[in-house]
């Protein structure tokens, strides 16, 4: 019983990583699946794709390592958050495709609820904003639009879940309908102060509470897998949303510690300890993790486009063939030009929350070419992070200018990480283990299984690969940031 299997169900792919008892990677497997865009601003995943790819990569990772089922002590699950599923409790059949976190179809509903004055109450209880990003309005849409769904939900025939719950349900053969506190905290239906589903918000959205999963700690007993999946029943002992799992994997356990993950989007979380800091700057208040019934909170800044801007250079403009080519282009860019790219392709996330905005480029000249575009794209990720960290510092004085721990695919870009340190005016630390999301899920499961050490000792094992120190002159930093802010203002005005 020396291994831990971490399942990371992400927005574009499902991954599984097998760790040994010291949390070293033994093997991994990954599988991409289809994205469905049935209408402008709509994004869906096939519920069965999510489950089938997870089952496939989990088995593949175990087989690759030549591990025996009895070697695996526990499974940890981490997942894309907010994505919303609804299924039949008797047959396990989904009633609709999963509505993905990026989906904007409920923008009108959110506007209406805001106009009716409900946002302050919802924010005070959930820490979130009335934005289509979260699960609540998506679940209401499903109940409003699938014939007979609300009536069946009232009779207790249906189950709602975020992706973790859907996977737990399938792994356990329909025996367990549960979620963890971090995933619950992203639904818009969960009271993060009192740690319970909020009956008033459910009534407001006309959501029958019989739909909701049981909420457990991040390191907890989530039942056992069906024996036929791995040849033995394996206990599921850890669950957390992917950004919270990365916070754990980065060992950001002390108040004031922050991490930022650069995948398709960027999500920065600042540990605020037992304090539930209410943001005055439109950040989210969320649960970082819940262990032994004790909740640790975080401030979160969510940006929808980070690595996706590099994908756009590749797939939209055809300027590069591979993401890593942006480094050489950015280095070759003309220092005399100052192109600013605001990548509001799907609107702006924190701290602006403008789903109606679209992207813009400022400062084009006849000499602007691929190099300047690439540099502006990489810089946009730094500027957006600076906005988040400025908001965090303004919200909470204990956040003052500490180190930022980074991870995710785009954190491998040295140029981007150096610019990030420059524009933040603070050090940026990249760890040796960049699979922090899976590591966090694996650690939570290992903690519950009794094979991983307490957080303090786990923190000591965190190892630095490279620190990026700020090198830009303060005057230049502020001038460049001021120009970015002007570009964002102009982009919002144009919407
Ligand atoms: N060397 C690089 N330079 C810039 N961007 C990169 C680099 N490598 C990967 N990326 C970007 O990182 C993202 C992939 O990161 P990943 O953590 O796998 O994302 P996700 O989990 O959201 O799919 C892609 O959007 C890609 O464009
Ligand atoms: O799957 P990722 O890595 O793009 O993360 C998605 C986030 O959890 C959305 O809130």
TrEMBL record:
Pfam family, one: FGGY_C
Pathways per UniProt: Polyol metabolism; glycerol degradation via glycerol kinase pathway; sn-glycerol 3-phosphate from glycerol: step 1/1
Residues annotated as domain Carbohydrate kinase FGGY C-terminal: 259-448
Keywords assigned by UniProt, alphabetized: ATP-binding, Glycerol metabolism, Kinase, Nucleotide-binding, Transferase
Gene Ontology annotations for the cellular component aspect, listed alphabetically: cytosol
Residues binding ATP, per UniProt: 11-13, 264, 307, 311, 409
Binding site for ADP: 11, 15, 264, 307, 409
Documented activity regulation: Inhibited by fructose 1,6-bisphosphate (FBP).
Protein residues bound to sn-glycerol 3-phosphate: 11, 81-82, 133, 242
Superkingdom, natural source: Bacteria
Entry coiled-coil feature ranges: none
Reaction(s) the record says it catalyses: glycerol + ATP = sn-glycerol 3-phosphate + ADP + H(+)
Protein's recorded name: Glycerol kinase
Native species: Paracoccus thiocyanatus
């Amino acid at each position: 019983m020396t291994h831990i299997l971490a399942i990371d169900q992400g927005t574009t792919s499902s991954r599984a990583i097998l760790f040994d008892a010291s949390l070293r990677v033994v093997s991994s497997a990954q599988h991409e699946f289809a994205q469905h865009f049935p209408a402008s601003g709509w994004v869906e995943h096939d519920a069965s794709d999510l489950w089938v790819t997870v089952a496939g990569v989990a088995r593949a990772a175990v087989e690759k390592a030549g591990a025996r089922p009895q070697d695996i002590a526990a499974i940890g699950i981490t997942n894309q958050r907010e994505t919303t599923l609804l299924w039949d409790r008797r047959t396990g059949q989904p009633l609709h495709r999963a509505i993905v976190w990026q989906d904007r179809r409920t923008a009108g509903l959110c506007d209406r609820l805001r106009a009716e004055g409900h946002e302050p109450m919802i924010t005070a209880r959930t820490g979130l904003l009335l934005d289509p990003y979260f699960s609540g309005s998506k679940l209401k849409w499903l109940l409003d639009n699938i014939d007979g769904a609300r009536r069946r939900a009232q009779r207790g025939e249906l189950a709602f879940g975020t992706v973790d719950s859907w996977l737990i349900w399938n792994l356990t053969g329909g025996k367990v309908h549960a979620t963890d506190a971090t995933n619950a905290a992203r639904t818009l239906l969960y009271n993060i102060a009192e740690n319970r589903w909020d009956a008033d918000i459910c009534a407001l959205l006309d959501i029958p509470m019989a739909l909701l999963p049981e909420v457990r700690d991040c390191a907890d007993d989530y039942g056992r897998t069906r024996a036929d999946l791995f040849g033995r029943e394996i206990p599921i002992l850890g669950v957390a949303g992917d950004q919270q799992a990365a916070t754990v994997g980065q060992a950001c356990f002390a108040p004031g510690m922050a991490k930022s993950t650069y995948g398709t989007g960027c999500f920065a979380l600042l540990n605020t300890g037992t304090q539930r800091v209410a943001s005055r700057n439109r950040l989210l208040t969320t649960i970082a993790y819940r262990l032994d019934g004790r909740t640790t909170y975080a401030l979160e800044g969510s940006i929808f486009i980070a690595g996706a801007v590099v994908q756009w250079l590749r797939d939209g403009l055809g300027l590069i063939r591979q993401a890593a080519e942006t480094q050489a282009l950015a280095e070759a860019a003309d220092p005399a030009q100052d192109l600013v790219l605001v990548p509001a392709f799907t609107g702006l996330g924190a701290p602006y929350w403008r789903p109606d905005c679209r992207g813009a480029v400022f400062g084009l000249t006849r000499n602007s070419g691929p190099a300047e575009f690439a540099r502006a794209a990489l810089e946009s990720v730094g500027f957006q992070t600076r906005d988040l960290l400025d908001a965090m510092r303004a919200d909470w004085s204990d956040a003052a200018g500490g180190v930022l721990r980074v991870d995710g695919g785009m954190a491998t870009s040295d140029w981007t990480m150096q610019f990030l340190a420059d524009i933040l005016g603070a050090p940026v630390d990249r760890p040796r283990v960049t699979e922090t999301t899976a590591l966090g899920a694996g650690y939570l499961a290992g903690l519950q299984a009794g094979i991983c050490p307490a957080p303090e000792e786990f923190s000591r094992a965190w190892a630095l690969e490279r620190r990026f120190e700020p090198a830009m002159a303060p005057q230049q930093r502020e001038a460049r940031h001021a120009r970015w802010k002007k570009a964002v203002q102009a982009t919002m005005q144009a919407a």
